[in-house]
Amino acid sequence: MAVTITAVALALVGLALFGFGSQLIMLGGSFYYALAGLAFVITAILLFKRNKAALHFYALFVIATLGWALWEVGLDWWQLGPRGGLIIVIGIWLLMPWIRKPLGFVSPTGIRYRANAVPLLVAVVISMGVAAVSMTQDPHDQEGNLPTEVVNNAPSYGNAVPDGEWHQYGRTSYGQRYSPLTQITTANVGDLKEVWRYQTGDVKLPDDVGETTYQVTPLKVGKTLFLCTPHNWAIAIDAATGKEKWKYDPNVGLNPNRQHQTCRGVTYYADPAAQAGSQCAARVYLPTSDARLIALDAESGKVCTSFADQGVLHLEVGMKYNPAGYYYSTSPPAIAGNKIIVGGAVNDNYSTQEQSGVIRAFDVNSGELLWNWDSGNPTQTQPLPPGQTYTTNSPNSWSVFSVDEALGLVYIPLGNQVPDQLGMGRSENVEKYSSSIVALDVNTGQDRWVRQTVHHDLWDMDVPAQPVLLDITKPDGQSVPALVGPTKQGDIYVLDRRTGEPILPVTEEPAPGGAIPEDFSAPTQPTSALTFKPEPLQEKNMWGVSLLDQLACRIKFHQLNYEGRYTPPSLNGSIIYPGNFGTFNWGSVAVDPERQVMFGMPTYLAFTSQLVPRDQIPPRGQDEKGSEQGLNRNDGAPYGVLMGPFLSPIGIPCQAPPWGYVAGADLRTGKVAYKHKNGTVYDMTPLPLPFKVGVPGIGGPMITKGGVAFLGAAVDDYLRAYDLTSGKQLWEARLPAGGQATPMTYALDDGKQYVVMVAGGHGSVGTKPGDYVIAYTLP
Which position among 241, 344, 467, 580 has the lowest Cβ density within 10 Å, counted as fewest Cβ atoms? Predict the structure, then answer.
C-alpha cells in the first residue's frame, strides 16, 4: 500500500512539474522542471510495477539535480535547499524498508531479488554532504574593513549640541546620526542591559490603516526625552528613569484615507530672546496626521497660544483641493534661525486633485508665513497672496530636511508628482525637480541648486532620506562641504553641498524603454560612483520553499516585463527592482565625520507594478482603507496601478535571499568596504527559527565615537550593535515589538551613556505592533 500511495503522489507531483515546466520552456525558461516532472512520472511507473530500477533511476535523478543546482547557484545553501529539499526527502522515503523491500522480483527458482538501495543511498549522502558544505559558505558576504584613520579631529556637527544630548532628528541639523560619546565601545557593548522601559499607551487600533507605524527617534534636551506616537501624541519622559512628565493628545482621529499613520519625531526650539523659565521659552513642535503643526511648552506640554492660530498652524491653507486624509506631516520640521521649515506627505496615487507639495517657512515664534517654495511654481517664493493657491500635485517632501546655517541653505529630499507611475503631461518644472535633492536659500526660499536622482520618475523613486552633511577631506588635504544623499534605487550621491556638483562621479547609463504609448521613459538614468544598486534579476534568482513554488515564480518572472533597473510600468505588469520600498528609505545612513565613513542598511526586495485602465477599476469598497500596496486608484487619470512585493503563491519573496544587509563605505573614495547579511527569519515564519538569511528592514542606523553602530529596522524584533570598522555584530537585544525606528544615544550629568530604541512595529512589513520606549546602559 505504501508503495502505491507513494507512486500516486510522485505521479501527481510529476505531472504538475511537467505541465508547468513545459509552460516555462514555452516562455524561454529552464528545461529542468519539465524534465524533473518526467523523472517523477517514470519513478512512479517503476514503483507501480514494483521494479527495483525505481531506486536506481531516482538515484540518477538526484545526482543530475545536484549537478544542475550547483551549475545554477553554486554553494549557496538558501538557493540549493529549495532545489533539492523535496527531492532528497523523497529519496530518503524511498530508502525506507516499507518502500524498498516490496521492490524486485522472484525468480522461477523461488529466489527473491530485492532492490539494491546503495546507489540511491550514495546519491542522497553526496547531496547532503554538499548541502552541509554549503551551510558553511556565504557567497553573498563581502568581508573588509573601513579605514580607522581620524581624518578630521574637530569636525563640524552643524549646530552646537552638547555631546551628551540629541536635539534634532539626526542629533544636529547636519543629520549625521553620530554621537561623540565614547563610554560604550566595541569592547564593552556586549554588556549593555535594559534599565528602563516606558509604554506610551498609544497602540494600533482595529480601525487603523494598515501602515500604522512607530518610527520616532526621541530627542534628548537637558534631563528630558521628547517624542511622539503614531496617533501624534507628544510625550516628555525623564531621561534617567523613563517616567512620564507630560502627555499631549491632539485628537487626530482616524481617517481610512490616510496611507500612513505615523510620527517620526518632534522639533525642539529654545527662544534665545525669551526669559529663562518663562512659558514657551522652550517649545516642542508636533506635526500631525490631520495637517496641523502644534506648538507646545517644553516644560508643561501646554499649547503655546502665541504661535499661529492659538498654537496651531493649519497646513492645508493655500491648497486648491483639500480632501481630508490626503495630506499630512509625518516628519519633524527643520529650524534655521527664526524659521521653522515644513513639508508634507501627499497620498501616493489617489487622485490627480491632491494637495501641493509646497515647502514653507514660518516665523518660529509667531507662525507667520515668510516664504513658500512650490516645485510646480518655483520662482514665486514670496508668501502666497490671498486668493491664490499652490500647484496641485507638485512633487512633495515627506522626509526630513537638513540645514547648513553657515551657508544659509536647507536641503530638501523631493518626491515625485502623483500619479507616480504616469508621466504624461508633467510640466517642465516637475520634470526638473521631481525625485531630486534641492538646496533652498533659508532666507528667501529660492532654490540655489538641484540634483535630480531619477529622470522622468515612473517608479515612485522619491528621494526618501534626510541628506547627511559633513566636511570631506580630499587627498590633497582640501576640506569640501559635502552632502550624502541615499536613494531608493541604491545610489548614494556625495555632492558639494555648496553647488550640488558631484564629489564622487555621477554618470548617465542607458535605461530600458517600453513605456505605454501615451508616455515615455528617459533614455538614460544617473548612477553614482558610490552605489548599492542590485545586480539585475535572472530566472535562476527565483526562489521558493520547494520546486513547485519556485517554478511558479520562474513562470511569473518571464510573464512580467523586466529589463533591469528602471523597467517602466506596463499594462502587462513589470518587475520593479529595487522596488518602491527602496534600497534605502527614510532611515537614511549614519556617518562618522571624523573618519568620514558611512554605515547603512541596503535592502533588496523586488516589487511589481501593473497599470490598470480606468474602466477596469472597480468601485471603491465601503471598508477600503488607504495603502500604498494593492490597487491605487489614481482618480482622474486614465490608469490606476496595482502594486506590491513580488511574492510566490505562498506569500514569500520570489527572489532569493539575502534581502537585507549592513554595509560600510568610505565616503572619500566611494569604496564599499563590507556587506554582511543582516537579520533572521525568527519572526517571519511559524516556527521561531534563528536562521541568518538577511531580511528586509525599514529604519535607520546610529553611530557613536566609540566605534559602535546601532540598528534595529530588520523584520525580526531585535536591536543590534555592530563594529563600525568591520560590520561584525557585537550585541543584540530582543525587542517586545518591531523596531522600525532609528535608535539614539545620550548621557546624563554623571557621564553614564544610554541607548534608546522605540519598538512599535510597522504595518507594511508586518512586524508586531507595540508602544515601547526602551533604554539600555552599561552595568
Answer: 241
Of the candidates 124, 126, 134, the one whose C-alpha atom is nearest the C-alpha of residue 78 is: 134
Contact indicator for 250, 198 with CB cutoff of 8 Å: no
Known catalytic residue at 460: yes
Residue 86, beta-bridge partner list: none
Is residue 395 within 8 A of residue 355, CB to CB? The reply is no
User: 244 phi and psi, to 5 degrees?
Assistant: -70, 135
Residue range 250-297, pLDDT digits in tens: 999 998 889 889 999 999 999 998 888 899 999 999 999 999 999 999
Predicted pLDDT of residue 112:
59
Q: Is the pLDDT of residue 706 over 90?
A: yes
Those residues whose C-beta lies under 8 Å from the C-beta of residue 152, and which sit 6 or more positions away, are 471, 473, 479, 593, 594, 596
Pair 240, 213: CB distance under 8 Å: no
Please state, in angstroms and rounded to a whole number, the distance separating the CA atoms of residues 354 and 351.
6
Q: Is the pTM here over 0.90, yes or no?
A: yes
Task: Give the pLDDT score at 108.
Answer: 63
CB 604 within 8 A of CB 638: no
Closest by Cα among 492, 519, 506 to 574: 519
Q: What is the identity of the amino acid at 412?
A: I
How far apart (Å, rounded) are the C-alpha atoms in residues 377 and 394? 9
H helices of 576-697, where? none
Report the 10 Å Cβ neighbour count for 482: 25
- The reported pLDDT for the residue numbered 542 is 97
pLDDT in tens, 31-79: 999 999 999 999 999 988 888 888 899 999 999 999 999 999 999 999 9
Altogether, the residues listed in the chain come to a count of 779
Q: Are strands 672-677 and 112-114 parallel, antiparallel or unpaired?
A: unpaired
The catalytically annotated residue of 460, 462, 519, 683 is 460
In angstroms, the CA 713 to CA 699 distance is: 4
DSSP string of 711-779, one letter each residue: E--BSSSEEEEEETTT--EEEEEE-SS---S--EEEE-TT--EEEEEEE---TTTTPPP--EEEEEE--
